[in-house]
Write a structure and sequence with these properties.
This protein is mostly helical. About 60% of the residues lie in helices and about 5% in strands. Strands 1-2 form a two-stranded antiparallel ribbon. Helix 5 runs antiparallel to helix 7. The protein starts with a helix and ends with a helix.
């Protein structure tokens, strides 16, 4: 099953969405309003983990390729433990889940 998941084809739009999402979730990159709230963000392995997760989700749902819906559905569980808010962001009441939701909303 693991080999099958890794062999699933992934469309260019899904790859681009994963790369854009992971890059925009790093401090100093992407939207300054969001990046300024992050003390650290996901690295390359987060992108790899998200890619593997969207493939597995597609396969479990009987599809032969992942879609943007898979990226949207799995962004939070994959990214939330790979990011940290600044003290100022926490003091303002910002949450990681809200930040991830804003980043995901920009994919569509």
């Amino acid at each position: 099953a693991q080999r099958l998941v890794r062999r699933l084809p992934v469309g260019e739009s899904v790859v681009d969405a994963i790369l854009a999402l992971v890059r925009s979730a790093r401090p100093g990159e992407g939207d300054p309003d969001i990046a300024g709230h992050l003390s650290w963000g996901p690295g390359p392995r987060a992108g790899q983990a998200l890619m593997l997760a969207v493939r597995a989700r597609a396969l479990l749902q009987g599809r032969v390729a992942p879609s943007l819906d898979d990226v949207v559905a799995l962004a939070e569980p994959v990214l939330k433990h790979r990011m940290a808010l600044t003290f100022a962001a926490r003091a303002e009441g910002e949450t990681l889940l809200a930040i991830i939701a804003k980043l995901v909303a920009r994919l569509g």
